[in-house]
Amino acid sequence: MNEHYFSSSPSGQDRRRVVDVELAEQDVQVETSGSIFSPDGVDRGTRVLLEVVADPPAAGEFLDIGSGWGPIALTMGLLSPGADITAVEVNERAAMLTQTNAARLGIDNIRVQHPDDVSTGATFDLIWSNPPIRIGKTALHDILTRWLPTLKPGGQAWLVVAKKLGADSLLPWIQSMLDAKAPGEFSVRRAATDKGFRVLLVERVL
Questions:
Q1: From the CB of residue 137, how many other CB atoms can be counted at a distance below 10 Å?
Q2: pLDDT tens digits along 166-191
Q3: DSSP per residue, 120-138
Q4: Side-chain-side CA neighbours of residue 87 (13 Å)
Q5: How many angstroms separate the Cα of 155 from the Cα of each of 4, 35, 133, 187, 205?
Q6: GO terms for molecular function, please (predicted)?
Q7: CA nearest 6: which of 49, 40, 35?
Q8: Pairing status of strand 186-194 against strand 82-88
Q9: What is the distance between the alpha carbons of residues 6 and 90, in angstroms, rounded to a whole number?
Q10: How many CB atoms lie within 10 A of CB 194?
Q11: Where does the pLDDT of residue 134 fall: very low under 50, low under 70, confident under 90, or very high at 90 and above?
């Protein structure tokens, strides 16, 4: 890939292909393309996340940060057809693929948006994300500062981060950032370790 998958308007050719994947314990086919994250299927980090998290509630406001072609948002939609799911993505091609794949799988409760188009007052009961670590620490911190405080009281955010990409240092930073914004309202802990990845759990307790 000659450009980063987080480019907003990838210049590489949009060569669509259909791949077989397993989502929500179902064998399904999805469309992918070049110049997006993990075009060959579900990446290892996302797979670890989806294996660790419990099934989402039947309803609520859910968020997928950085949807790519859609594995996390699609899983949420398959498991919780009564939920209202927002998938945020800056890569226009990936965002279109999330929409295409939702339609392909008959999922009608996913809204795909550029982060700037999401209402600043939006709040969420559940966040699942394989955040784009490779965009750099400053940009990553900006993303987490924007979205993690949107958890509703009682809400949870599940994040998967590779150990070699700084998962262990990210956890205390998240706790410090949230404590500064809302003292005593959030807890952050490591929920699982698997295959070189850490799954972090952020809970809004108040």
A1: 12
A2: 888 999 999 999 999 999 999 999 99
A3: TT--EEEEEE---GGG-HH
A4: 30
A5: 32, 33, 23, 11, 8
A6: S-adenosylmethionine-dependent methyltransferase activity
A7: 35
A8: unpaired
A9: 7
A10: 15
A11: confident
